[in-house]
Amino acid sequence: MSVTVKNIVKNHGDIRALRGITFEVTEGELFGLIGPDGAGKTTLFHILTTLLLPDEGDAHVLGIDVIAGFRNLRRRIGYMPGRFSLYPDLSVEENLSFFATIFNTTVEENYHLIQDIYHQIEPFRKRRAGDLSGGMKQKLALSCALIHKPDILFLDEPTTGVDAVSRREFWDMLGRLRVSGLTILVSTPYMDEASRCDRVALMDRGEILSVNTPAGISREFGRPLYSVTSGRRYELLKALRACTHAHSVFTFGDEVHYTDLREDFRPEMLESYLQQLGFDDVRIEQITPGVEDTLISLMSTQDTRDPIGDDNHGHKEGTNDGYNPAIKDS
Amino acid sequence: MKAFWGFIKKEFLHIFRDRRTLLILFGMPLAQLLLFGYAVRNELNRADIAILDHSRDEVTREITGKLLSSGHFQLSAWLESEAEIEEVFQRGIARNVVVFESDFGRKLIREGRADVLIVTDASDPNMAQILEGYTANIIREYQQEWQMRNRMAMSGVGGMTSGAGGLAASGIIPEMRMLFNPELRSANLFVPGLIAFILMLVSAFLTSIAIAREKEMGTMEVLLVSPLDPRQIIAGKVLPYLVLSIVNVFTVLVVALVVFQVPFRGSVILFSLLSLLFIMTALALGLRISNAVRDQQTAMMMSLAGLLLPTILLSGFIFPISNMPVILQYLSHIVPAKWYLIIIRGIMLKGVGLEVLWMEALILLGMMSLLFVVSIKSFKIRLE
Questions:
Q1: Architecture of B47-169 per CATH?
Q2: Higher-confidence position of B44 and A28
Q3: How far is CA A302 from CA A206, A209, A313, B71, in A?
Q4: What per-residue confidence (pLDDT) applies to A305?
């Protein structure tokens, strides 16, 4: 096992950042932590990279205890924090060679490790890191995290604030790194990136809701899912929410994703209901649930269990429309 | 070790690429020195003076001539009556009025004493005191000369004037001489204070900001998750500023010696060693602040309010500690700059050594050790 996490609890004052996290990552796996902002992804990464102490539970990375063995561990992990953490006043080259020196190595020695990524930004090696685009910063930060040949790589939201093309390229690079046998943990708020991982853990408000392969996650959804569209999206949303048979209703880009409580439900039933209300341009289509659909449905069921559930996550079961980050960039 | 030198190199790159840091580092000390040297002078240079002479005899003319030829004063008005004094002050024509009583010269010869009144505009109390001192000094000098002349005249003419005997009997004129800074040169006073201030600025202020910046940008996370020992991170941050502080002290000192002719009477080695002690104290303070804050803004505010202001106000740099309320006098004991100022003023102006300054040196040493232990202990090897 590359990572073993057992029952990790972490509180930031009154905020319960992690409420008992347990999961494992096997060697050579590309493992995704997926969840909205505030799910506790960064806190979990800080604990695994020895930057924070857990309040309860224990965690091992590369078989080393993250508390007792933090000095040893720090030599062997590669970590790319959420904000890229480069020195904006140093050039591309200087940043890379600085991170190489503090890990007692040189750029030349390990150039083969980063060649694939670094050659894309090499033409700009004299440019200050502060003047790079988001995508180039991301590549440089990844190069810096890889230059000392780590045995495991932690990437905290590496694709946040990066354009869609760079995001895709970035995941391609991660795929190639995985082939070389490196264990990689990535956190991301983008659901559509889940499919690039071997396995993902869905996180929300300090808990892991599910750990599965991307395909397995979709199968967990458990109900037929329908995409409903109309020119009057807002009215449509209200009308669907008002429907007594609605199980879950949430927006997904221009569409509204809908599940029904009735066992014998057929889309025509919904269509006639909406036509009665004056929607004449409605289109209803059954679709395969994505990771986001599963996450939202899992978050909703968690709400009914969890009396503390806040307003962001809907008042009625399954009426969540607050969360759709995957749509913005893709 | 290679990692450590790489760190130092990076630190110097930060410093030399940041225009703001460079300005504070090299521009500010020089600007301060010249500002204090030329503009913020406590010494007199052609101050406006008005004379009200009720006597208009040879003696008062001579005294007036002496005042005006001293280079410290220039005549702005001849007054006719006491009523005009207030007006002269109100309209800012003069800040100092010298009033000779009538029959001044004759009284001086007959009775051995005559009254002169020095009126100063005390709306600026410091200035008033200085004006008063200068005026009184010049008059006293004249009195001495006058006495010598008369004594010689007496021995020559053989006791022709009876008054001369009386004057000789009362002839001891209280002498007030100012030690160590006889010309009251303000450069001698401010240069040591300025050195303390600059060291505090460079060592504490800039170091605290430099570390806070790593935290703010998130690069501290990566530094912590690296094989670098926390002590190496601290040393790597502190060492460049130590070097630059030393460079700065000597630049300021050389400019002060050459341009303002400030004396340096004591040992340069002792000066350097004790300055190093003070620099380390300041660095430890900067480190302590940076450990407590998360961003540059807070680091800046804390070092300004917590370090630079006390260094200016409570160290004796500008305001004499003995004139402060008792509670502030006690407070000044914990300001490292106070002890450092005593030390370097002692070395530079009085030429004394450790035999006199050992207590101040020990206090600084104690402060430095304590602060360094506390700062290193409080350095976080994790994020919280």
A1: 3-Layer(aba) Sandwich (3.40)
A2: A28
A3: 12, 8, 10, 89
A4: 44
In angstroms, the CA B175 to CA B184 distance is 16
Mind giving me the DSSP string for A241-309? Answer: HH-TTEEEEEEETTEEEEEES-TT--HHHHHHHHHHTT--S-EEEEE---HHHHHHHHHHHHHHH-TT-
What is the residue extent of each domain of chain A? 3-218, 222-329
Q: What's the rounded Cα separation, in Å, for the pair A193 and A195? A: 5
Tokens of B159: 């006791």
CA distance A19 to A56: 9
Helix ranges (H only) for chain A are 41-48, 70-76, 92-102, 111-118, 134-146, 164-179, 214-219, 233-242, 267-276, 291-305, 325-329
| DSSP at B47 | E
What's the rounded Cα separation, in Å, for the pair B8 and B370?
Answer: 25
How many Cβ atoms are within 10 Å of A161's Cβ, its own excluded? 15
CA dist list (Å): B203 to A17, A30, A262, A325, B11? 38, 46, 73, 46, 14
Say if the Cβ atoms of B217 and A88 lie within 8 Å. Answer: yes
**Which residues touch B20 (CB under 8 Å, ≥6 apart)?**
none
A309 neighbors A295 (Cβ within 8 angstroms): no
User: Checking phi first, is residue A318 left (phi over 0); if not, alpha (psi -120 to 50) or beta?
Assistant: left
Token output for B372? 């360094």
Taking CB atoms and an 8 Å cutoff, what residues of chain A touch B6? 97-98, 101-102
CA-to-CA distance for A126 and A63, rounded, in angstroms? 40
Q: Which of A40-44, A237-241, A259-263 ranks highest by mean pLDDT? A: A40-44
Length of chain B: 384
Contact flag B224-A85 (C-beta cutoff 8 Å): no
**What's the rounded Cα separation, in Å, for the pair B303 and B289?**
7
A153-173 pLDDT per residue, tens: 999 999 988 888 989 999 999
Residues 6+ apart with CB under 8 A from A81: A156, B218, B221, B222
CB neighbourhood size of B106 (10 A): 14
Q: How far apart are CA A330 and CA A292, in angstroms?
A: 13
CATH for A3-218? 3.40.50.300
Q: Which of A227, A85, A90 is nearest to A156 (CA)?
A: A85
Protein fold of A222-329: Alpha-Beta Plaits (3.30.70)
In eight-state DSSP terms, residue B353 is -
Task: List for chain A the helix, strand, coil content (%; round to 5).
Answer: 40, 25, 35
Closest CA of chain B from A261, distance in Å: 47
Give the integer Cα–Cα distance in Å for A237 and A252: 11
Residue B179 has pLDDT above 90, yes or no: no
Residue in chain A nearest B220 by alpha carbon:
A85
Q: Are B216 and B209 in contact (CB under 8 A)?
A: no
Q: What is the pLDDT of residues B193-228, one digit of tens each?
A: 888 888 888 889 999 999 999 999 889 999 999 888
The answer to whether the Cβ–Cβ distance between A51 and B218 falls below 8 Å is no
Q: Taking CB atoms and an 8 Å limit, are A85 and B219 in contact across chains?
A: yes
* Unique residue bearing structure tokens 């009195």: B143
Collect all residues from B whose CB is shorter than 8 A from any CB in A.
2-3, 5-7, 10, 13-14, 17-18, 217-219, 221-228, 381-384
User: Can you name the residues that pair with B19 across neighbouring β-strands?
Assistant: none
Instruction: Enumerate the domain spans of chain B.
Output: 8-40+185-378, 47-169
ipTM field: 0.80
